[in-house]
Amino acid sequence: KQEVTQIPAALSVPEGENLVLNCSFTDSAIYNLQWFRQDPGKGLTSLLLIQSSQREQTSGRLNASLDKSSGRSTLYIAASQPGDSATYLCAVTGTDKLIFGTGTRLQVFP
Amino acid sequence: DAGITQSPRHKVTETGTPVTLRCHQTENHRYMYWYRQDPGHGLRLIHYSYGVKDTDKGEVSDGYSVSRSKTEDFLLTLESATSSQTSVYFCAIRLDRGKTQYFGPGTRLLVL
Q1: Stretch 12-31 of chain B: residues touching chain A, C-beta under 8 Å
Q2: A62 neighbors A77 (Cβ within 8 angstroms)
Q3: Phi then psi for B73, rounded to 5 degrees?
Q4: Nearest residue, CB atoms, A103 vs list B42, B90, B104
Q5: pLDDT one-digit tens code per residue, A1-52
Protein backbone atom coordinates (compact mmCIF):
# COMPACT_ATOMS: atom_id res chain seq x y z
CA LYS A 1 0.00 0.00 0.00
CA GLN A 2 1.37 3.37 -1.05
CA GLU A 3 2.16 5.76 1.78
CA VAL A 4 3.14 9.38 1.32
CA THR A 5 4.94 11.33 4.03
CA GLN A 6 5.74 15.02 4.18
CA ILE A 7 8.39 16.53 6.41
CA PRO A 8 8.33 18.90 8.16
CA ALA A 9 4.68 19.13 9.21
CA ALA A 10 5.07 22.85 9.84
CA LEU A 11 7.65 25.46 8.96
CA SER A 12 8.01 29.13 9.87
CA VAL A 13 10.59 31.26 8.06
CA PRO A 14 11.38 34.95 7.56
CA GLU A 15 10.62 36.54 4.23
CA GLY A 16 13.31 36.15 1.59
CA GLU A 17 14.56 32.72 2.61
CA ASN A 18 14.91 29.88 0.14
CA LEU A 19 13.26 26.76 1.45
CA VAL A 20 12.74 23.09 0.68
CA LEU A 21 9.69 20.97 1.39
CA ASN A 22 10.08 17.22 1.35
CA CYS A 23 7.81 14.43 0.17
CA SER A 24 8.58 10.71 0.33
CA PHE A 25 6.63 7.72 -0.93
CA THR A 26 7.00 4.01 -0.32
CA ASP A 27 6.16 2.53 -3.73
CA SER A 28 8.27 3.79 -6.62
CA ALA A 29 5.79 2.49 -9.22
CA ILE A 30 4.12 5.85 -9.70
CA TYR A 31 2.65 7.46 -12.77
CA ASN A 32 3.36 11.02 -11.71
CA LEU A 33 3.63 13.29 -8.68
CA GLN A 34 1.74 16.51 -8.12
CA TRP A 35 2.31 19.40 -5.71
CA PHE A 36 -0.66 21.43 -4.46
CA ARG A 37 -1.18 24.51 -2.39
CA GLN A 38 -4.14 24.99 -0.04
CA ASP A 39 -5.03 28.28 1.60
CA PRO A 40 -7.12 28.17 4.81
CA GLY A 41 -10.77 27.42 4.08
CA LYS A 42 -10.10 27.01 0.37
CA GLY A 43 -9.72 24.23 -2.14
CA LEU A 44 -6.47 22.86 -3.55
CA THR A 45 -4.57 24.62 -6.31
CA SER A 46 -2.23 22.60 -8.49
CA LEU A 47 1.32 23.98 -8.54
CA LEU A 48 3.40 21.47 -10.47
CA LEU A 49 2.99 18.05 -12.06
CA ILE A 50 6.04 15.83 -12.63
CA GLN A 51 5.67 12.78 -14.83
CA SER A 52 7.52 9.64 -13.74
CA SER A 53 9.94 10.03 -16.64
CA GLN A 54 10.87 13.58 -15.62
CA ARG A 55 13.39 14.76 -13.05
CA GLU A 56 12.04 18.23 -12.35
CA GLN A 57 9.54 20.93 -13.21
CA THR A 58 9.75 24.67 -12.72
CA SER A 59 7.15 27.39 -12.45
CA GLY A 60 8.32 30.86 -11.48
CA ARG A 61 9.94 30.69 -8.04
CA LEU A 62 8.94 27.05 -7.61
CA ASN A 63 11.01 24.06 -8.60
CA ALA A 64 9.98 20.48 -7.94
CA SER A 65 12.27 17.51 -8.32
CA LEU A 66 11.52 13.80 -8.46
CA ASP A 67 13.78 10.85 -7.66
CA LYS A 68 11.59 7.84 -8.25
CA SER A 69 14.19 5.25 -7.32
CA SER A 70 14.62 6.69 -3.83
CA GLY A 71 10.94 7.59 -3.44
CA ARG A 72 11.52 11.28 -2.90
CA SER A 73 10.37 14.63 -4.21
CA THR A 74 11.29 18.11 -3.08
CA LEU A 75 9.58 21.44 -3.64
CA TYR A 76 12.00 24.34 -3.65
CA ILE A 77 10.62 27.83 -3.08
CA ALA A 78 13.01 30.65 -3.87
CA ALA A 79 12.93 34.04 -2.15
CA SER A 80 9.88 33.24 -0.03
CA GLN A 81 7.16 35.86 0.47
CA PRO A 82 4.34 36.23 3.03
CA GLY A 83 1.92 35.37 0.23
CA ASP A 84 3.49 31.91 0.06
CA SER A 85 2.01 31.11 3.47
CA ALA A 86 -0.27 28.08 2.98
CA THR A 87 -0.34 24.32 3.34
CA TYR A 88 1.57 22.43 0.65
CA LEU A 89 0.56 18.90 -0.25
CA CYS A 90 2.16 16.34 -2.49
CA ALA A 91 0.26 13.47 -4.10
CA VAL A 92 1.36 10.48 -6.17
CA THR A 93 -0.62 8.71 -8.86
CA GLY A 94 -0.34 4.93 -8.90
CA THR A 95 -3.20 3.84 -11.11
CA ASP A 96 -6.36 5.95 -11.29
CA LYS A 97 -6.07 7.48 -7.85
CA LEU A 98 -4.00 10.11 -6.11
CA ILE A 99 -2.54 9.29 -2.72
CA PHE A 100 -1.92 12.41 -0.65
CA GLY A 101 0.60 13.28 1.98
CA THR A 102 -0.58 15.08 5.11
CA GLY A 103 0.99 18.37 4.09
CA THR A 104 3.48 20.95 5.30
CA ARG A 105 2.03 24.12 6.82
CA LEU A 106 4.25 27.03 5.81
CA GLN A 107 4.27 30.45 7.39
CA VAL A 108 6.44 33.21 5.94
CA PHE A 109 6.65 36.24 8.20
CA PRO A 110 7.72 39.76 7.13
CA ASP B 1 -11.16 27.05 -11.07
CA ALA B 2 -10.92 24.65 -14.04
CA GLY B 3 -14.70 24.76 -14.54
CA ILE B 4 -15.68 22.84 -11.41
CA THR B 5 -18.56 23.83 -9.18
CA GLN B 6 -19.90 22.17 -6.07
CA SER B 7 -23.35 22.57 -4.55
CA PRO B 8 -24.33 23.32 -1.95
CA ARG B 9 -21.27 25.10 -0.56
CA HIS B 10 -22.53 24.82 3.00
CA LYS B 11 -25.09 22.52 4.56
CA VAL B 12 -26.35 21.77 8.02
CA THR B 13 -28.43 18.64 8.45
CA GLU B 14 -29.63 16.28 11.14
CA THR B 15 -28.48 12.76 11.87
CA GLY B 16 -30.39 10.18 9.88
CA THR B 17 -31.38 12.41 6.97
CA PRO B 18 -30.22 11.76 3.41
CA VAL B 19 -27.87 14.29 1.84
CA THR B 20 -26.75 14.68 -1.77
CA LEU B 21 -23.79 16.76 -2.85
CA ARG B 22 -23.31 17.69 -6.46
CA CYS B 23 -20.15 18.21 -8.47
CA HIS B 24 -20.48 19.76 -11.91
CA GLN B 25 -17.73 20.22 -14.50
CA THR B 26 -17.65 21.98 -17.84
CA GLU B 27 -14.31 20.49 -18.97
CA ASN B 28 -15.46 17.08 -20.25
CA HIS B 29 -12.85 15.35 -18.05
CA ARG B 30 -13.09 11.60 -17.81
CA TYR B 31 -12.16 11.18 -14.15
CA MET B 32 -14.11 12.66 -11.23
CA TYR B 33 -13.35 12.18 -7.54
CA TRP B 34 -14.92 12.81 -4.16
CA TYR B 35 -12.67 13.41 -1.14
CA ARG B 36 -13.25 14.37 2.44
CA GLN B 37 -10.79 16.43 4.43
CA ASP B 38 -10.58 16.23 8.21
CA PRO B 39 -8.02 17.56 10.70
CA GLY B 40 -5.39 14.94 11.38
CA HIS B 41 -6.44 12.76 8.44
CA GLY B 42 -5.68 14.90 5.44
CA LEU B 43 -7.49 14.20 2.19
CA ARG B 44 -9.13 10.81 1.88
CA LEU B 45 -10.74 9.40 -1.24
CA ILE B 46 -14.39 8.37 -0.90
CA HIS B 47 -15.35 7.30 -4.42
CA TYR B 48 -14.24 8.06 -7.93
CA SER B 49 -15.53 7.69 -11.46
CA TYR B 50 -13.60 6.85 -14.62
CA GLY B 51 -16.51 7.34 -16.99
CA VAL B 52 -20.28 7.59 -17.20
CA LYS B 53 -21.78 4.88 -14.99
CA ASP B 54 -18.26 3.66 -14.10
CA THR B 55 -17.40 4.17 -10.45
CA ASP B 56 -15.17 2.60 -7.82
CA LYS B 57 -14.62 2.83 -4.10
CA GLY B 58 -11.92 4.75 -2.31
CA GLU B 59 -10.50 4.20 1.14
CA VAL B 60 -13.46 5.63 3.12
CA SER B 61 -16.52 4.61 1.07
CA ASP B 62 -18.70 3.16 3.85
CA GLY B 63 -21.90 5.18 4.28
CA TYR B 64 -21.53 6.88 0.89
CA SER B 65 -22.81 6.16 -2.59
CA VAL B 66 -22.20 7.91 -5.89
CA SER B 67 -23.76 8.19 -9.30
CA ARG B 68 -22.61 9.52 -12.62
CA SER B 69 -25.31 9.45 -15.28
CA LYS B 70 -23.62 12.05 -17.48
CA THR B 71 -20.07 13.23 -17.99
CA GLU B 72 -20.48 16.58 -16.32
CA ASP B 73 -22.15 15.56 -13.04
CA PHE B 74 -20.94 13.39 -10.18
CA LEU B 75 -23.27 13.03 -7.19
CA LEU B 76 -22.28 11.97 -3.69
CA THR B 77 -25.07 10.69 -1.45
CA LEU B 78 -25.02 10.11 2.28
CA GLU B 79 -27.92 7.71 2.66
CA SER B 80 -28.37 8.40 6.37
CA ALA B 81 -26.06 11.10 7.63
CA THR B 82 -24.08 10.57 10.84
CA SER B 83 -22.10 13.03 12.94
CA SER B 84 -18.88 11.31 11.83
CA GLN B 85 -19.62 12.51 8.30
CA THR B 86 -19.25 16.13 9.36
CA SER B 87 -16.41 17.25 7.12
CA VAL B 88 -15.32 19.32 4.18
CA TYR B 89 -16.00 17.52 0.90
CA PHE B 90 -13.98 18.22 -2.21
CA CYS B 91 -14.68 17.19 -5.76
CA ALA B 92 -11.84 16.86 -8.26
CA ILE B 93 -11.53 16.19 -11.97
CA ARG B 94 -8.81 14.89 -14.22
CA LEU B 95 -8.66 14.45 -17.97
CA ASP B 96 -6.69 11.21 -17.67
CA ARG B 97 -4.28 9.67 -15.20
CA GLY B 98 -1.30 11.45 -16.67
CA LYS B 99 -2.78 14.90 -16.33
CA THR B 100 -3.21 17.48 -13.63
CA GLN B 101 -6.00 16.97 -11.10
CA TYR B 102 -8.14 20.04 -10.41
CA PHE B 103 -10.20 20.63 -7.31
CA GLY B 104 -13.52 22.30 -6.66
CA PRO B 105 -14.08 24.88 -3.91
CA GLY B 106 -15.44 22.39 -1.37
CA THR B 107 -18.68 21.81 0.55
CA ARG B 108 -18.78 22.21 4.32
CA LEU B 109 -21.21 19.71 5.80
CA LEU B 110 -22.28 19.75 9.45
CA VAL B 111 -24.34 16.83 10.72
CA LEU B 112 -26.03 17.56 14.04
Answers
A1: 31
A2: yes
A3: -125, 135
A4: B42
A5: 889 999 999 999 999 999 999 999 999 999 899 999 999 989 999 999 999 9
Dihedral sign, Cα of residue B29, residue B31, residue B36, residue B40: negative
Residue ranges of chain B with per-residue pLDDT less than 50: none
pLDDT one-digit tens code per residue, B53-73: 999 999 899 999 999 999 999
| Residues 6+ away with beta carbon under 8 Å from A56 | A50, A63, A64, A65, A66
| CA distance linking residue A88 with residue A20, whole number of Å | 11
Mutation to test the B interface, candidates A23, A57, A97, most B Cβ within 10 Å: A97
